[in-house]
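Figure 3 (text version): structure tokens given as input.
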């Protein structure tokens, strides 16, 4: 992608018109929750996350267009960001195994939506060797996942399109941090219901916008994942939507689904955003990073290492309390298709 060319054509074309009502409940009483930036890749732009007073839904407003999403997602999971994402994904193995055990059983066909490189399917098949794993993702990386043998079948088509040709085909559909990144979670869940056999299971994991750390850490809260996350649904809203979409909630994990990294990740996010770039990334329109900038970044990261370690220790201690309550940064739901 020619980043410079994309920006010179105008940043406004990356956005839909600003919404004047809540996309979830239609309420007109909406206001700014927080203004966030791309703190991961530090691509240019500022993004408003609005909140509905009536239902608590948090949403990107104005929302990115498909072209805008392509711009900000490019080189995040693939291309220049492939190796970094793959190294981070290696730390998710224990969480993937917990997700599989939460579903239970021995399903014949499992569809993972928003599969990225296919790491979830790779871990899941270790516990379910007789299950056939399908994966959907717009990135070409999922095709490499199929070549590696991590998934049995892979496709780069949208779920709504895929559902039209694969009705009642699957026993389980997993959506792990997928619904937040879609313009219409309702439409996506309707497609999930369509591809599931009656009695089939949807495993849903999403960010919890009611986490106290979302307020404490502000724009540096790791789970904003701006600008990819477009819709953040409070737990009560998700339960209502599932019922409306033909599902019955069977299991819920709220505190137990918490990822114990809020404080450490916020500090790391702030450092990454404010320090000189690690490399002359093409979207920064820079041909080089100076020696001074490299020294400053490495020096600051070394000095911050003890603080990062302390923050992680605090996160792990807080998780002992959070796991018993409802205030985690994530929640999981297992729902059965009626």
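Below: residues designed for each position.
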């Amino acid at each position: 992608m020619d980043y410079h060319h994309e920006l010179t054509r105008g940043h406004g074309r990356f956005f839909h018109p600003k919404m004047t009502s809540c996309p979830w409940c239609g309420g007109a009483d909406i206001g700014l929750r927080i203004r966030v930036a791309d703190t991961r890749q530090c691509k240019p732009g500022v993004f408003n996350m609005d909140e509905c007073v009536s239902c608590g839904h948090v949403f990107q407003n104005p929302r990115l267009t498909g072209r805008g999403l392509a711009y900000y997602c490019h080189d995040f999971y693939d291309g220049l960001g492939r190796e970094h994402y793959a190294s981070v994904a290696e730390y998710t193995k224990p969480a993937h195994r917990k997700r599989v055990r939460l579903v239970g059983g021995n399903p014949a066909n499992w569809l993972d939506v928003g599969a990225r490189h296919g790491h979830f399917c790779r871990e899941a098949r270790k516990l379910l060797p007789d299950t056939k794993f399908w994966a959907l993702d717009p990135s070409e990386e999922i095709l490499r996942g199929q070549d590696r043998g991590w998934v049995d079948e892979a496709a780069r088509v949208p779920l709504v399109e895929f559902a039209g040709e694969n009705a009642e085909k699957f026993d389980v559909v997993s959506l792990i941090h997928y619904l937040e990144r879609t313009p219409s979670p309702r439409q996506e869940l309707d497609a999930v219901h369509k591809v599931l056999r009656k009695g089939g299971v949807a495993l849903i994991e999403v960010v919890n916008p009611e986490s106290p750390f979302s307020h404490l850490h502000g724009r540096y809260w790791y789970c904003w994942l701006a600008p990819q996350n477009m819709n953040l649904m409070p737990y009560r809203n998700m339960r209502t939507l599932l019922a409306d979409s033909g599902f019955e909630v069977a299991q819920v994990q709220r505190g137990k689904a918490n990822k114990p990294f809020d404080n450490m990740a916020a500090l790391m996010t702030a450092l990454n955003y404010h320090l000189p770039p690690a490399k002359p990334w093409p979207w920064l329109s820079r041909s080089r990073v100076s020696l001074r900038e490299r020294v400053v970044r490495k020096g600051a990261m070394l000095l911050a290492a003890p603080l990062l370690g302390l923050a992680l220790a605090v996160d792990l201690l807080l998780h002992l309390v959070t796991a018993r309550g409802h205030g985690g940064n994530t929640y999981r739901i297992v729902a059965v298709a009626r």
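The CA atoms of residues 278 and 294 lie 7 Å apart.
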